[in-house]
Design a protein that fits this description.
- With 146 residues, the protein is mainly α.
- The protein contains six helices and three strands.
- The radius of gyration is 16 Å and the shape is globular.
Length: 146
């Protein structure tokens, strides 16, 4: 994942600011806002990956209001390189934290509650939460680069 983090920053720097700031629709996010959303996701998930290891089980996953986070962080008004640097820093720290999680902690039960976006069980484990974070990241990176 280290390579991915460095690759994203490099690839962002090759896209003109105008293209990154363009909104495909007034209610949809620009590419900078999508990357900013990934920063917000990283902040929230970094906290989850740490807290799930020591809080009462099942760990309660608290949702966050994505649109409000993107709006209040004003990512579209920031330089793309600054957003990419924030994203890179957060994800390098996530790599650091994940690489140190003991195997038994990966089985900690996590109650998704309101944060469950998909149908099915609302209780998963920490490993699932980590894998879901990576799937979510890949989905949004594809939106930016494809």
């Amino acid at each position: 994942m280290n390579f991915l983090v460095l690759d994203v920053s490099e690839r962002i720097s090759g896209i003109p600011e105008e293209e990154l700031s363009a909104k495909p629709d007034p209610v949809k996010w620009s590419k900078k806002e999508i990357l900013g959303h990934l920063c917000d996701s990283a902040m929230n998930n970094l906290s989850r990956f740490i807290r799930a290891q020591f809080e009462v089980e099942p760990f309660s996953v608290v949702p966050y209001r994505q649109d409000e986070w993107v709006k209040l962080n004003a990512y579209n008004e920031m330089k793309a390189e600054r957003i990419a640097a924030l994203w890179s820093t957060l994800n390098l720290q996530i790599i650091n934290v994940i690489s140190r999680i003991p195997a038994d902690k990966l089985a900690v039960k996590c109650d998704l509650g309101e944060a469950a976006f998909r149908e099915g069980e609302t209780v998963k484990d920490l490993l699932w939460l980590i894998e879901d974070y990576l799937v979510h990241m890949e989905y949004h990176l594809n939106q930016i680069f494809n």
